[in-house]
Every structure is written in structure tokens, then in C-alpha cells.
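Supplementary Note 3. Input sequence used for the single-chain structure prediction.
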Amino acid sequence: MGSEMCIRDRLAADSGALDLGALRREREARRERADPPAPTLPFRLLRARGEGDDARAHTTTLEELTAGRWRWAIFSNYLICPAWLESACASLMSCPLVVLARDEIVSRWAAAQGGRVHVVEPPLPDRYGTNHSKFIVLFNEAGMRLVVHTANALYHDARDMTQGIWSQDFPRRPAGAPRPAPSALGQLGGALHAYLARAIRAPVDLGVLDGTPTIGGADALLDFDFGAAGAHLLASVPGRHVGAEMARWGHVQLARLLRAEPALAAPLGQSSATASEVCAHDELVLQFSSFASIDKAGAMHGAGAYLAELCDAMSCSPAAAQLPARRLRAHIVWPLVDEVRQCHIGYDGGDSIPSNDGDMAKVSGSAALRGCLRRWATAGHALGRQRVTPHIKSYLRFDPTSKRVAWVALTSANVSRAAWCARRARAPRVPRAACQPADSRALRARAPPPSCRAPPPAAAARACSRGILEKHGQQLFIKSYELGVLITPSTLANARAHSPFDCQACTLGGAAGDTRAAAASPQAAPGAVAMVPMHEGASEERARALLAAGAAPLPLPYALLPPAYGPHDEPWVASVKLPGSGQNVRKVHALPDAWGRSTGNAQLYGRDKDGRSVV
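The predicted structure, written as C-alpha cells, is reproduced below.
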């Protein structure tokens, strides 16, 4: 903390007295103390309390990613503890800050910051909607940094839970170059512009910063080059979307991006294999931290039901591969009661994993749904997150044999209608006789039960493209703001085709022009990059071969696959409804944790980045 506080103190001083040489030396010293992450790592985990130096290769902290000199920043989160924010993101306390939040605690704190912090409440047309997105956009004279993550801005979430984080720096366009249209920013830049334009309806006048009049809003992105983006942006914004807007948001956007990907055979080093052979046995993993309302027992596999349609979207294959449409088998990673009880903070580790007894009873009472459940922990997992409960949300498509991952999504969105979109009318049921996939003979040994099999290709394609809609498929209804990234072999190849860019190194190094030019220079790179969980290379020969051939290692905090639930395993339940009142209260569990507690009671507010209570 010492070096970061030193930088903050200097930035608070007169800019004319700023010692750039000292700042550069301090930055180099920080780099010497912590090895930088592997450049091919698609995302990282937030470093949990108690993790040692061996975890630095695949973890980071929000303190590290926000350290440095920034002209201004945007900060969005669902829950924000000002005491944590001030200490964990100390560099942001020295620049104008636009905070996207709907929280009276944050508004009162901002009012005491002397006009430096501007709170913007993103519009919520539905009373059940939330501003659930968790991201930071940091701007300086050299470029901007986008940080997308899954943690609430609380000590409990950032240090005691398993969280995922993705970040990338983008260079500023040459001085004097005309601003492009938002549609020319590429997928990531254009999607972020569209999101901010809806979340910040009235851009914020930040005054003159470093001699430049600055407006805090979506159009600030027009000054940056997103050509080297290593991910697609996944977003949801509240509203009833029609026409072209429907394809921008929710799982309709996810399905569109998956269909637009190149065919999957090329990145696997299997030039003689057809796409159908490469992807014949692919399955899905849905790992999230909040079980929303379940329509009824077995809703996962009822034709036209919400979860099934979400899986249809995630089952979309690249259109270029011309694969027969089918719903992939899905696995849901959800912790056991015992896994929460035995985690490093006991039942407090379940306070950020909301679920109620009614919905979990429907899950446990359905043979189809319970058969999808997988434990969180796997004994001997190399990343050691067995005792750090999850708040990360990750969705992926993978091959169970080679452990090759076709794509992975890291997002704030749980499996809920509010996040991805909400349906009003049930789609017609597909006759069981029509549910056999075209390649069923080869897949019969692995095929899901009849109710889980896909409709004919045309019907499945319509389900993937429509998603869960209103007005006969002409309107998409979303309640909440969500933000995440979709990482694919083609996006990783695109990032590898450009030189790495660090807007902080550029700022402190004094050679901004040279760094920007290098960042825009295409490099020799494969057309796509395979992805494999980094921990699987130790035990799986085919996974080890892919990693050796240049596949990108994914720091998945769970195995592919974790153990299935046993007959007596009890899924985590955080709350129960009181009879009569319908009020949700914390569930009292039968066995106490290591502290003798039978329920969680985590202190969410009033703790700084080191866990100290702050009045």
C-alpha cells in the first residue's frame, strides 16, 4: 500500500512539481516485486486473502489495475463501500470520478468529495431491475483501460470470494484525427459506447482536465482505437428492445456473436478433422452465484422454458461450420452446503451466493435439474480455490475429452430473466418425435434424455435467434444492467496480432507516440487460438499437448468437470421464507462452521481494503 499511497500524495500536489522519474522508478520496483501475468492469459482471478506468491501468475487485484495516474474514470458497481473504494482504488481518489450506482450511501459519500465525484443513476424502467454491472473505465493522456469483473466493491467480495477479472488497455487515436462513428469502433468499442449512451443519458461536464475540456460520457470512447480487442463485450440494458436493438443485448447478442465466429476446426491443430467431428461431444458449463426463480421443477428441460432457451443460445455454433443444431448438455456448478461451511470464512462465504429454499427444493426435486448439478470444489485442484467460495460468473463450451474450450464468457450476469431477458409467453412444444438430432447415431451414448434433446435444425435456429421474447418474437424485455466479456479463439488471435499496449507505461515512459504505433502494428499470428484450462495440462495428455502448441491457458477455478452431486449432497441455500409473511431470512444450518456459527453474518460495509473496520 505504501508505494500506491505515495503516488496518490504526489498526484494531489501541484502537477508542475510532479516527479515523473520517481513515478517511473516506483512502477518498475512494483513490477520487480510481482511477476507480470502471462500475456496469453485470457482473464485472471482476483487474489484472495491468504494466497501466496505462487498465485501471482494468474491473479491480480483491483488495487494493481487502478494504480497509476489517470485523467478521469468511470466506476460502476451494484454494491459500493466508500471506505473500501477509497483505500483499494486510491489512485481514483485523485481524479474526477463518474460513479454509476443507485445507492444512497454512495450519493452521501460523493456529496462530501467537493465536486470531484459525480454519481449517475442509470435509468431503470422496471422496479425490479438493478444496476448490476461491475466495471471500470480509466482514461489518461496515452490511452484507456477497461476492467470488467464480477466483484461487488466490498472487502468481503474482493478478498474473500473467488472472482474473475478481465482488462485491456487501448491506445488513444493520433492527435487531430477525426472522430469515427460509434459503429466504426469494432464490436467491443461499439457495444461499450451503446451501453454507456444508455446508462449515462446526460453526459457529465468534468471541466478542463490537463488543458482539455472533458465530457464524461459515451462519446469519450471515440478518441481510442479498439482494433486490438481481445474479447467481445456482452451487455444487457433495461427496456423493451425492438428491431435492430434486439440483437445488441442479452442472450440474443450472445447467440449472434457465437454464430459469427469462424469455424472451430482451425484453432485446434486438427486440420484433417471436420467441424462436426471436432465439436461432436461439446458440452456447456453454467457457473453462477445466484439461483433466480425457477418456473417449475424440471424447467431446465421443458421445451420453450427459460433456462432451456438460454442453453439454446449458448449452444449456437459458428454459421460457417454448418453444424446440425442441437442443444448441448449443460452442467451447473453450484456449491454444496458443506463446501460453504468448510470454506476459509465459514458460512460468511455464502452471504454473496443468494438462493432460497423454495427454488432449491424445485431443483433438488427434479431429476433432470439435479442431474445437471456439479460441486464447486475438486480435491487437489491446482489453483487451490476449493475453500474460497464463488461469486464469479462463468459460462463456457468445452470438449470433455481434450478439455479444449470453444469460448468462455465472464460476466456480472447470473442465470436470471432480469439479466439476460424475460419471457411472457411459452413457445410451442416441439413434438418428441422431432427431437432427435441429425447426428444422433454417433452421439446416442452421450445423448441427453428425450426432453433435453434439440428440436430440428430450423426450429433450433429460430430459438437461438429469438431467445426469450415478447410480442411473437418482436420484442426483447430486459430488466437490469449487466456487463461481461466473451472470449473466443478469434478474439485471442486478434489480440496476439497486435503488440501489447500499456497506457501507464506509455504515460510514464515519455514515448507515447512510439508505443501507440507499435500497438497498432499487426504481427504474425494464427487465425485462432485454442483455450485450455491451465490446471488440466498436468493430468490430461491432450490438454498438455494443446498448451504446448500455444493454446491460451484459462485460470478456471473449478475442474472440467467437478464431481457430480451424490444422492445425499445438499445444494447451498442462503435463505428461507417465513411462513405467512413471505419474508426471507438467513437459513440456520444443522452443522456449525469452524467458528461455531450456523448461519452467515458477513460485514459488508465499513471495511477498508485490508479488512479493517472504518467508522
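The two ends are 20 Å apart (CA to CA). The first strand starts at residue 44 and ends at 46.
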